[in-house]
Structure formats: C-alpha cells, structure tokens
Design brief:
The structure is a homodimer.
Chain A (H helix, E strand, L loop, with lengths): L7 H8 L7 H20 L4 H17 L6 H8 L2 H9 L37 E10 L9 E5 L21 E5 L5 E7 L4 E2 L5 H8 L5 E2 L2 E7 L6 E7 L18 E2 L2 E3 L2 E2 L5 E2 L3 E5 L2 E3 L5
Parallel strand pairs in A: 1-13, 1-14, 8-9
Antiparallel strand pairs in A: 1-4, 2-3, 2-7, 5-6, 7-8, 10-13, 11-12
Helix pairs in contact in A: 1-2
Chain lengths: 289, 289
C-alpha cells in the first residue's frame, strides 16, 4: 500500500500483522497499534511533540539499571500498574487484596527467622509486626515464603542509596511457622516521595502532581497451592491515603500501627523508647482460580 | 480515592492532572492515559505481559546512542512516524509530498558544491542526480539548503558502520543555485533492511513482517519563506514499494532512475561502466500555512 494517510495507515499497519503466527502477540499488537494511532490523531500530535515523546522514552530507558526500573515507575504513576494488578487479581471475597509490586523489590534479600530484626540498622521508629497466613478456609498456611521490604525512616529504600556499598536493610525473607504465624521486628513505615531525580519526576512535576506515597510495608507471600500475593499494609493515619502517587491504596490494606510507650515489647525486649505494633493476617486465594 | 478498580482508575488518573498548568501537556496526557488504559483492558494484559512490555521498552532505550535511535525505529515500524508526518504535512496541491525522517540523519554532514560526488567512496553504482527547487508559484528557490543522505550499495548507512572510525559518506549538504538548480553525483540507492540486531528487529520478526525498505534517497530542504520539506525519492522498479517496513511510500515520490551504458555522464565525466541518472524537481510549500 502506498499513499497512506493519517487514517488509512492504521488498518494497513494492522494488516501487516497477518503473517504473525503468535495469536496472542498479534492480538496485543493490533490493539496497541489502534490505540497508539488513535491517541496521535486525537491530540493532533506535532512532529516536535512526537520527537519529545521519543526522547522522553529514551531517557526513561537510560535511567534504568539493575537497581532502578524507571519504566515500572512510569507505569505506576500513569495508573497502568494498578490497573493491571486489578485486572489480574480478582480474588474470592475474604482474601487479602493485592496492590502494586513497585520498583524496589530485590531477589537478593537475606533469609531471616521469625522474631529477627529486619531493620538491620535502618533509621526509623521500632515496630513489631505479627500475624497469621491462612487459606480462605481459615486453615493456617505453614511454610509460606514471606518477602518483606520497606523504605527506612527517611523514606528511602536501601537500594536507592549510592553510598552504602549496596548494603541491604529493612527487607528480608521469612517463612510462616507450622501454625501459620509470622513475626518480626522492623521499623515504622513513613510516607515518602517516589524518586523524582529522573524522567518520571519530571513528568509528574509538569503535571502538577505530588510524588508522595502513603506509608506502607511491602509483602510478597508464596505457598504451594495458593496464588502468589503481592500487597502492602498501609498506616491508617497517613495524609496521602487518598492521593497515592501510584493509585495503590485498598481500604482493606489500611491498618492501625499502635503506638506504645517505653516498656516490654511483644517479643520480651525491654524498649526504652516508644515503639509500634502491627497485627495483620493474610488470607491467600487458592491457586488456579 | 481508594479501592480503584481496573475501570475507575482511568478517571482518577486523569483527575489527578487537574493541577496541571500546561494545557497542551494536560490534553496529551489525558488522551495518552485513556488510550493506554483502554489498551490494557481490551487485551486483558497479564502481569507477565506487562513486565515483558516494560522490559522491552527498557531494551529499546538501552539500544539508543548518539548514532542509533531505536525508539524512532520502533515508531517507524508501528506506523506512528508516518501517521505524524501525514498529520502535520498537509501541503497545498502541487507541492512535493513529505515522508518519514528516519533514524539516520546527522547534523555532522559536510558541505558540498553542486557537481561534487557525495559518495565519498561509498560502494554502489554511480548515479547523477539533478533538478530544480521551486515554489508553488513556479519561481526558482535560490540558496535552499539541501541535505541529502542514503545507504550505500550494500544497504548500510555510514553511521551504522562500527569499523570505519565514524567516517561519513553518501551524504552531504548542498545549496541550490540562483536559478534553483541543484546537481550532484552519488550512488544508486538499493533496497535495504532496517537494523534488525535490536529490539525492533525482534518484534517485526515475531510479527512475521519483513524488515525491508524500498530503495530511496533522503532529502531535507530548507529555505526562508518556505516550509521545511523532509522527503525521499524512491526507485520505481523496487519490489518493496507496496510493503515498505515503515509505511513511507508516496506515488508522487517514486521516480525513474535511468540506466545508461558506459559513455559521457551529464557532468562530462567519461564513465567506463554503466551509470544512472535521476531528474527530480522539488516544489516547496509557502511557510506559515
């Protein structure tokens, strides 16, 4: 086909996929092409804007490395990540809801035992977290692998520091006990800003949006026979619960982190300064639903 | 807003732009968000596919450097580039049509005089190109800056070579004479493959598409009082005219490159092997239309 105009080019670009043997890939590319073209027509994208857009995407790619995934952050701030989470995590009533994965998980986290202090020296108010992992039938799930990660008291994740030789802190991997229980010490999460020193920071500033996420603790819980759960537990007193920069808040995931005066912590530790406790139970969906 | 689902999140993501003071940016982001979300819903994008997509875009960004713009190539192969060209280059009848810019232009090209050989040693059949630059009123345009660039006889652009110390060839910048005429020697363009050693090559292979572009010579022509023209001149005998990998062919830009037996070339050179000639006149649109 020659002489394609701004309308006829869409059908031709889609027709060119006719030799594609991967039906799902073809379906995705067909929809992507149609929406990408429709977007450009709808806003009457200029050549200068088109070039700016491509340069922007290039800069996002360049910002990515093994500790920073700026495209995930872009997806998060556009609401795409949470949309995909919602599309794929319609769990039966009673199950713990899912939310965004975020860009700060790492497989390199260490294994801990229940009761250990995951803070590993991270700044922040001491906090004791405990609960049970259960199935929808109420039965405890033993041996569930529980990945925990969070920002420190300054709102910064270990992997964001460039001056700490790559040390990991305020994260770790536990397993639930035979009765489904898990417990650990860490720090109270604080609200924080998503990284604004890259292209994503530029776009949300230009859009007049704030970059803050309400305080939360990340969990990823996996056990045979159950759907993997990726979620957060938020703090009920956070001012950003209704304007999370990545749209991830679920009411069912907002919980009380109870403040205690100095005294004896749940694990028997004598605390000479105030500390917090969180009780949160997880309910996993059965696999294969 | 909390508890956003895969449908309600779109309006909320758009509502968050309410503080944006740049009306055009807001308009673009609103449409982009709506179409991006609609795409994900329409294909029911899985979390694994979402991650693959982000990793793909990251790889595209990583492939870009000062001589390779993989995002332009991605846009070209999706038909977006030609769509944007068509949207922005509705010229008055009689003007030379525009087509895609492509990723291989460089501002570092040297200045030449009419009659010079731009090939500068590039492989390929010798060709002599000539014509006149005029306005829509038929009047010659003197002093128009004419940027010319093309792949060599092996279908490879100078900037693609990694073993030639960055030498430029088969490209250069001329100016039209007082009577609007331009002429130069170069090489006959050949069909070629877009670069397939990167993520763009991966997607078109998976889509079952070929990577070829019909043979062409690139022109960018600029003169005060006229719209900048970015275009190609194609060869009429090319088998890929109807399936250009970047959708750029216009019938009005397809021309005869006439083959001649050895003899005296248009510039008086004694040619002891066959050579080609192309006559092509350009008509520029008035600026500010």
């Amino acid at each position: 086909m020659r002489n394609l105009d701004e309308n006829t080019i869409t059908d031709e670009a889609i027709r060119r996929l006719e030799g594609c043997k991967d039906a799902r890939f073809k379906e995705i590319l067909t929809s992507l092409t149609r929406h990408l073209h429709e977007f450009a027509r709808e806003v009457k994208l200029t050549e200068a804007e088109w070039m700016q857009g491509l340069e922007y995407l290039t800069a996002v790619g360049k910002k990515c490395d093994d500790k920073r995934q700026e495209f995930i952050l872009l997806s998060d701030t556009l609401g795409l990540s949470m949309l995909v989470v919602a599309l794929n995590n319609a769990k039966p009533p009673g199950c713990t809801e899912a939310t965004v994965f975020g860009p700060f998980h790492t497989d390199k986290a260490s294994d801990f035992r229940n009761g250990d202090d995951l803070a590993q020296g991270a700044s922040g108010e001491p906090a004791f977290v405990r609960g049970t992992v259960r199935g929808l039938d109420g039965k405890p799930v033993p041996g569930a692998v529980i990945d925990v990660w969070q920002a420190d008291g300054d709102g910064i994740y270990d992997v964001q520091y460039t001056d700490k030789d790559g040390a990991l802190f305020a994260r770790g991997r536990l397993r639930s006990e035979a009765d489904g229980r898990y417990w650990f010490r860490s720090i109270l999460p604080e609200f924080y800003s998503i990284p604004t020193d890259g292209p994503v920071g530029d776009w949300i500033a230009r859009a007049g949006r704030h970059p803050f996420r309400p305080a939360h603790l990340h969990f990823m819980i996996q056990a045979p026979g159950y759907e993997r759960l990726i979620t957060h537990v938020f703090r009920g007193d956070d001012k950003y619960l209704d304007s999370d920069a990545v749209f991830g808040v679920r009411s069912s995931l907002v919980s009380d982190w109870v403040r205690h005066e100095p005294g004896t912590a749940p694990d028997g530790t004598r605390m000479d300064k105030p500390y917090y406790t969180l009780d949160f139970d997880f309910v996993l969906a059965p696999a294969g639903k």
